[in-house]
């Protein structure tokens, strides 16, 4: 069992930056691929990024590529999402998730999900 708790959301102006964190419980954190998803009001959940268990491989959704980075610290059981050059359309609830497979994450599924953190980008 893995519990995920996101933090770092908030209100930011367009063009600004935020860093989200996701703290995981459990001793097996380092064996899981980690991902970030988001869901805006009235829209379906969208894949944002994932990172392999080792941290050596990352993958991004087209809408965030070049602006967001993902990283992890297995010693701290934490994964991060650095969001730069934020746009109004990045406004959403951001969810952390984990699974044994990055392919599963990219398909929009995960074994464990966090509760989400709100990110609001104002113009």
Quaternary organisation = single chain
Helix content: under 10%
Profile the largest sheet.
7 strands, mixed
The class by helix and strand makeup works out as mainly beta
Count of distinct strands: 11
Strand percentage: over 45%
**Low-pLDDT residue spans:** none
**What is the string of helix and strand elements?**
EEEEEEEEEHEE
Mean pLDDT: 96
- Which word captures the global form? globular
From the alpha-carbon coordinates, what is the Rg to the nearest angstrom? Answer: 13 Å
C-alpha termini separation: 40 Å
Folded structure, characterized:
This protein is mainly β. Helix content is 4%, strand content 48%. The protein has one helix and eleven strands; from the N terminus they run E-E-E-E-E-E-E-E-E-H-E-E. The strands form two sheets. Strands 2, 4, 5, 6, 9, 10 and 11 form a seven-stranded mixed β-sheet that branches. Strands 1-3-8-7 form a four-stranded antiparallel β-sheet, with no helix packed on it. A hairpin with a 6-residue loop joins strand 4 and strand 5. The longest helix is centred in the C-terminal third of the chain and has 5 residues. The model has no long low-confidence stretch (mean pLDDT 96).
């Amino acid at each position: 069992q893995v519990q995920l708790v996101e933090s770092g959301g908030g209100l930011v102006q367009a063009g600004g930056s935020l860093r989200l964190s996701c703290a995981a419980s459990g001793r097996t954190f380092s064996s899981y691929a980690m991902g970030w998803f988001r869901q805006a009001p009235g829209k379906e959940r969208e894949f944002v990024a994932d990172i392999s268990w080792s941290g050596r491989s990352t993958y991004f959704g087209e809408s965030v590529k070049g602006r967001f980075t993902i990283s992890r610290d297995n010693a701290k059981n934490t994964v991060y999402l650095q969001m730069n050059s934020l746009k109004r359309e990045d406004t959403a609830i951001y969810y952390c998730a984990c699974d044994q497979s990055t392919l599963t994450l990219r398909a929009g599924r995960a074994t464990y999900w966090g509760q989400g953190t709100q990110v609001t980008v104002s113009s």
